[in-house]
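User: I'll paste a sequence; please echo it back and then give the predicted structure.

Assistant: Echoing your sequence first, then the prediction.
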Amino acid sequence: MLDSSQNRKVYEGILLQLHEIIRDQNLRPGDKIPSERELSDLLGAGRSSVREALRALELLGLIETRRGEGTFLKHYRHNRLIDILGTYILRDYKTKKDLVEMRKMLELDAVRLACKRATQKHFDEMEFILENAWERLERGEIPIEEDYLFHRVICRSSRNSVLHRIWAPVIEYSGNIRTGSLSREGRAGVALEEHREIMEAIRAGDEEKAVECMKNHLDNSML
């Protein structure tokens, strides 16, 4: 019988091999992953060990099982690990302050690069997001998702994949801060106006103004 240490090694090994399968097959959120039986054959592991690994991934919200269809990858933004870690991180004031500081550093660098690298495609995306955000605001809703998407386009327009990969979890962990900020009376509308100012400065290639607008926006958002 395997001891707890051996069990853990088997379990961890399955998770690592599953990650390799996802990478090698270029699977994306929404794609179907091999079945428990298929994984057992592919990995040379017992069905019970594979089942345990899959159950852990499902509890974290990284995969979902649909009855009669199979098991599918979920987007990282929707997994419970982000919520759990975010809640833990924001309990500590110093860490919360550091998180806000890191976000500002990343966003300002993204703007600087966007002024040089953003394309018409990025501006079309920003315009579309702003239109949807105003429509939601007019319906009395807070455009929290649109706020995230707008900043993501700017980060993507930097065309620096490492910056984007660091930015994504920082923004996710600070989700409660963003929600609280946008929920303040009148803040959402002002934030959308600030978004447009940032966009127009980037479109003009005016790095100094774009950075100033983004800094002002972030300072107002963190109040």
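The domain at 81-221 is CATH 1.20.120.530 (Four Helix Bundle (Hemerythrin (Met), subunit A)). Residues 93-117 form the longest helix (25 residues).
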